[in-house]
Amino acid sequence: MDATQLYYERRGAGPPLLLLQGMGANSLHWGEPFLAALERDFELVLYDHRGIGRSDPLEGDLTIARLAVDALGLLDALELPEAHVFGFSMGGMVAQELALTAPQRIRTLIVGATSCGGTQSRPTPPAIIQRLTAAALSGDFERLLRAGFEVVVSGPYASEPEHYAAFVAAARHLPASLSVLMDQRIAIEAYDAYSRLRALRAPTLVIHGTADELLAPINGELVASLIPGARLELLEGVGHLFFWEQPQRSAQLVADFALRAGLPSG
Length: 266
Fold this sequence. Notes:
- This protein is an alpha/beta fold.
- It is built from eleven helices and seven strands.
- The relative contact order is 0.17.
- The model has no long low-confidence stretch (mean pLDDT about 95).
């Protein structure tokens, strides 16, 4: 790990659970309902990726492997020999890479709304990318918020005004710069773990919403099919940001799996 300083928080009590956020998101974007449910069973370790939120600005090239080194460096700095790991979206890629490069540090691996990359995965539909890009380039922050919200949650969830208000409140805190978002997108597009996932031996849970427009659920199905013994949990009618739409259920899935499958080593 280089000299970059990462902002992190620790909360709750129990075995450590490292949380890895997605593209453009910082640790505030987990949402209090989800975190409050998780911290009953775990000591949560949540942080902002380099270039994001309260962490140091991004310098140099960004890759998923570099973000995995950051995650490992944080575990080292906190003197955590192993942890349960939950990665969402881009963070799911980081979690895969962490499990591949430092398997002895992973008690259980949980990935949600993510992809293994490579030509076998299904990328975000071009129409969605064009919509989000146009909103970002418009300079109209409200338009970007609305477009982003409608893409990352299901239609029924998006139709409730209070849900959008909560999303906006979180999004207004320390928004990612356009340049960092572009660098993260490049890192995502370059990532490919397809041919390596069969080597994973950590107990693995894959969660994906069936109404995910950003990353089709076939991506979660592919990840689960490649990792030996992985369990797949599809959330019917739920969008990309599944832990916002169903925080209690999502936290229960994570807790039940991690606490049953992840017996302490030794």
